[in-house]
């Protein structure tokens, strides 16, 4: 019995030391994603800082309307680490969402990010569903300039409730937020 107590005490002390070794702040100025590396960490391997260029921190195209002529009537233009290597390890990304009249960004979730959405044009009904057992719908109609937040991991949607096109910009709290479209899953 005494051996078990000593063993579990040592395990507990080791785990405590591991927990305190975590560093939440960046340990360097940046870590531009090296898409050619096969190494995977919590993010992508870093490009040699001496090879980093301004274009690694640049994306162009959020001014271009997405093609909404599809069954759901919306198009998401992402700006994640896949499009902007300088986002690697920074914990942020963004998207532009275009909606045709009555277009829908169908119910989906981001398993690794909270989302904050701003309406640039049009009127959107937005909402999310709370987790079990309530599964309560929290919903609101937003107008140009309005902002709404979707908590991490919760199923949410946006729907254009106007007769013209609508546009929104959303920021996400992950360089790679992931997306699971509920109907596809």
From TrEMBL:
Cysteine-cysteine disulfides: 31-46
Protein's UniProt name: Germin-like protein
Localization (cell): Secreted, Extracellular space, Apoplast
Chief site of localization: secreted
Domain of life: Eukaryota
Tagged with keyword Secreted: yes
Keyword set includes Ligase: no
Pfam families attached to this UniProt entry: Cupin_1
Binding site for oxalate: 105, 110, 115
Signal peptide: 1-21
InterPro entries according to UniProt: Cupin_1 (IPR006045), Germin (IPR001929), Germin_Mn-BS (IPR019780), RmlC-like_jellyroll (IPR014710), RmlC_Cupin_sf (IPR011051)
Family from the record: Belongs to the germin family.
GO cellular component: apoplast
SMART domains, A to Z: Cupin_1
Gene Ontology molecular function, alphabetical: manganese ion binding
Binding residues for Mn(2+): 108, 110, 115, 156
Protein keywords: Apoplast, Disulfide bond, Manganese, Metal-binding, Secreted, Signal
Residues annotated as domain Cupin type-1: 60-185
